[in-house]
Write a structure and sequence with these properties.
Layout lengths: L1 H21 L6 H35 L7 E8 L2 E8 L2 E7 L1 E5 L3 E8 L4 E4 L7 E3 L5 E6 L4 E7 L11 E7 L1 H12 L8 H12 L29 E2 L4 E2 L2 H9 L1 H4 L13 H12 L3
Parallel strand pairs: 1-5, 4-10
Antiparallel strand pairs: 1-2, 2-3, 5-8, 6-7, 6-9, 9-10, 11-12
Helix pairs in contact: 4-7, 5-7
The chain binds dinuclear copper ion (CUA).
Dinuclear copper ion (CUA) binds next to loops.
Amino acid sequence: MAAGSLVVWIAVVGLTVYAVWFGRRTRSERAARWLVVGGGVALPTAVLTGLLAYGLSLLPQTLAPAPPGSLTLQVTGHQWWWRVRYPREGHAPIELANEIRLPVGEPVEFQLDSADVIHSFWIPALGGKMDMIPGRRTRLQLRATRTGTFRGVCAEYCGTSHALMAFMVVVQERADFDRWLAQQAETATVPADPDAARGAELFLANGCGACHAVRGTPADGVIGPDLTHVGSRLSLGAATLTNVPSGLRRWLARTGAVKPGVHMPAFGMLAAADLDALAAYLEGLR
Ligand code: CUA
């Protein structure tokens, strides 16, 4: 597609340069008509039909279900974050948020849906985009060909913080991926540090567990992102902030300033020491 547009662009610029510098002589009306019919109708029709056919030829591969036995992920769009589930046979799926890890070189199928409005799932470096439609499951298949960290975005306007609805995609070797997934399946670490332990109490006392789950603790909310391993993630607030303690404190205290329209209330009324303890607890959930 890029090569096709480059050829067209070079041809148009070339004609413009020719017209401005070398084209200063009179031409017959017949030649002008040929230019309009040929360059204005026939050529674009041929080029666009060719590019369209090429684009459509890629679709079946994107939309087809991945080969049996492939890794399948369920991703649900929410205003403005992503619920990610790795289904497991005989167990509840492993749930996390705003981060996806994939094994390199293997076909992966994403099963996409939405909890509220239409979102669009897009990892520009890895594949095409696909709408996430409430009440309907869509699919997207892709295969990452090299390891690395990539950014995914929501590609459909979905409300105030649409532009702050991103996620991180880490493509790893199979062994690293398996290790990561096994670790994500575990329940949360029990905080050893006294500050973090106080943070765990504050987390429950302030009602955070009504919306967020931390597996292995009484916090079992399902409205917001699962925080069991939030400390291990690359970003906070759906790739809005870097995952460092100062970022966490900022998120907790000024949630609506960081992400306008967010459903989570800000906890700026808490004492600074309490915010530090909460941040220490959440950072420790690796
Ligand atoms: Cu979700 Cu835009």
